[in-house]
Amino acid sequence: MRTTMPARAVLLAALSGLLLCGCSGRAALSGFDPAQSSIYIRKDGSVSSASVEQTGQNYYSQEDLEAFVVQKAEEFNKSQGSEEGASPVSVASCTVEEGEGGQVLKCILDYDSPENLIAFNQAIRNPEIAFASLETDTVSAMSRKEDFSQAVFEDAKGKSTDLSKVTEQGGNRAVRIEGAGLIQTEGKILYTTQGCTLDGESAVQTPGEGVSYIIFQ
């Protein structure tokens, strides 16, 4: 007899059910191995996400979970009109580990664009990755598209920073994100907008309302 799982647990467990022996993608190779759900942005602008969940249970079936997620991934990739061999979303690594009080599920996914990171997690109604929008580009390119003058930037110490200082190194990576969540970056974070909370040199928690900017090197 199969056990019926809560909807949220089904989602995260299903993602972890995509475990494939020896699977290894950009996220795994880059050292992105977070302890909590987050997204990861590299210096080249490529993106990944991680769903991490302490379930409090020990009854997940690998076979059932894998079948569920394979179906969801195929449905999404087909909905994007992807050709054979091209994957808007792909698996970097997944683990199901025994933790205190139950299984810890972790799944890291790679995406071919920030837009598909948002679209996939919205499609599967993932409550852990619930951003409204995500864009990334060089500082120079983004400053030509966005009106940075309306943003209040702070340095890593929380001190207000003049906009000219933020934009003087145009080759740095800029991130525009809407919604609350944890973002990790490949490089050191130099500036964020007011309301963001740094967690070390390369992780930041964004606020629940409005648009946030992150600049890293």
UniProtKB/TrEMBL annotation:
PROSITE patterns: PROKAR_LIPOPROTEIN (PS51257). Keywords: Signal. Residues 1-27 form the signal peptide. This is DUF1307 domain-containing protein. It comes from Candidatus Enterocloster faecavium.
